[in-house]
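[Q] Does anyone have a clean structure-token version of this?
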Amino acid sequence: MKIRNGFVSNSSSSSFVVIGRKIYNHDVKKEVQKGKDIYCIGDCFGDGEDFFQITDEMARIIPDFYYKDIEFVEVFATNSYELKYKDFKDVEFTEDTTIFSIEGDYHYTQTAQDFKERYIDEI
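[A] Here you go.
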């Protein structure tokens, strides 16, 4: 008989702490072109939210007016489980800076085609 000691999990999610600010969908393309790290907090899957970075290709297909229940965030700092001072010491906090706690699903959107099928084709 085998005995297993320690943590066992079959979860397909990961926790993130994110410091950033929400942005409007009509600003996503411009901010990505400036080289900013823009992420999407999308649909909730079985084990967490669809949390992924917006690529240039994704930014080009986001309509100016987008009503689907997803959020776009300019990310200043992110890390799994915890953020240490060194992770955000250079962040300029403003009144619209927000700290998010996200349970991200491992089956997150990875390509522009995934993004189009999951979010754009539905509108």
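[Q] Thanks! Anything notable?
[A] Strands lie at 13-23, 38-45, 48-53, 71-80, 98-105.
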